Amino acid sequence: MSVRVNGPAAWGLDLAVDWYLPGQGRYWHLRLKNGVLTYTVGAKASSSAGLTLTMSKVQLLQLLAGKGLGAIETSGDIALLAKLFSVLVTPTADFNIVTP
Predict the structure, then answer these.
(1) Exposed, middle or buried: residue 35 (CB in 10 Å: 0-12, 13-18, 19+)?
(2) Does 2 have pLDDT greater than 90?
């Protein structure tokens, strides 16, 4: 899966979201700051996360397919997810990786 961040639209955002899959026992910590999306993986929740999503792999795939939260457990500010998704765009297959 690949995504592209609309940098100018995301420039003013500073948010952190934890994605927890109990079946894997790991947290994926996503951070969007200054138009850059980064992630780390850890065994514990991040203290800086404004939202934590707890879900199965099937629920994650459904969320990413646009089917909504369904039975995904949330803790924190759910509006952060909408803010994150609002600045993500699908890249075209023929985008330039390196430009002159």
Answers:
(1) middle
(2) no
Residue (of 86, 84, 8) closest to 39 by Cα position:
84
Q: Is 89 in a helix, a strand, or coil?
A: strand
Question: Cα Rg for the chain, rounded, in angstroms?
Answer: 14
CA distance 91 to 7: 13
Buried b (16+ CB within 10 A) or exposed e, 71-97: ebeeeeeeebbebbeebeeeeeeeeee
φ/ψ (deg, to 5) at 42: -150, 170
Which region holds residue 68: left if phi is over 0, alpha if psi is between -120 and 50, else beta?
A: left
Q: Rounded mean pLDDT of 52-69? A: 92
Q: Across residues 39-52, what is the average pLDDT?
A: 94
Global pTM value: 0.84
Distance CA 64, CA 62 (A): 5
